[in-house]
């Protein structure tokens, strides 16, 4: 992978210059120009200018890829210094418009060793809201590798503790004006070797259970509407440390049920319209979008979530994901270690990750991406309360106020939306039985512990789940769940200490035409170009029941 060659070169240069600075240095955002020198076969790294906090102007920048760079720039036009560096490198303003005609874009901003304090938010248009850093398309954001220290991005101690930052780092075509234009795609997104904390402390909090009282940041990294460039590079999010975040640590892709995409699956029903999807897509083959070797700990909602295609999630450590569900207190959960796919995602890989906690260790949701207006909650309130009877008590006057505005509380709105998506999925399947599936996910070689459900496949086609260790250590439900999944296989897994090791359910025509049908437990499908089936089985230990097929479709087999 081309990016990783460049990263290794940075590591080498840092190793040479790492001991040059002692005290009196500045944390900087250094803008670099570089290119490939065919005569010496190495990366050229040419610093253009350096930005820092106003009180540090004139100081030498701390450890980075070159020595003896003085900070000469700071905040510009009400934009904080670290954002001013990115905007200058991109040669764009907040709306993505060109600033200096005729000047080229610089491809790298390096954050040096130290702490980047976000004192005030950048106000972005919906759905971004208050953000810390906006990474413009085509600019790579790189911190210092762990062996030479840490680049920590956090809120300043002066931050209003009653205020919430929506996203610490956002990568998109713009932050104001036309933010959700599907035609404005970005590529070459690289975010590497940065620590992000939702705490106000001047050090990384350390890996511990999520503490909502001391977290003031919702999401860590958010990237959407990204695709591969002509060289195959769409996205690399690597070597990050993300701790104490209320929402998702790394969020790829965007789906809004509240924006009408203009697409519909059927007619004559309000639940036929589709919401807006702006995904992240790799090139496939040897050039997937890449999310790897990140250390995530203490998150309130999700570790890594994907809406996209050809994304490889590999070698990440995701610990202390909050749990909201013990398998009994409500019908479904919501938090997740890794979401491998949602609304039309395909060909994503989750490989060799360590996951602890969450309602679901690894999950997927191929629900129909319905467009929702407040009156939809009112019309389908009986269906919502049938699934969530506690809502009848919680909202005795219904889900919509006298002004026609929905007032479901956070998390409750997600559960209600899922019911509407289930109804819409069933309607869509009556027209086209291939609508709304997550297609061809691969979940392999992961270690999953202490989740209510280890691996959950909801509306999935063609999944392969293999060589995982899936352990239950507390209140739990299923090791692997097939729910309205088809043509999917679980084999060569170690599934230990669950009430049910593998559970297959989903009647035809509930949310899809096929329900759960033609799945194989302990059966390995033929490799491409072969017709040779294999029957390796799974290893079960300490489960109350190993495999249960109940209220499912046909053609499910166990070996």
From TrEMBL:
Secretion signal span: 1-22
Keyword Signal in annotation: yes
Annotated keywords: Signal
Record-given protein name: Right-handed parallel beta-helix repeat-containing protein
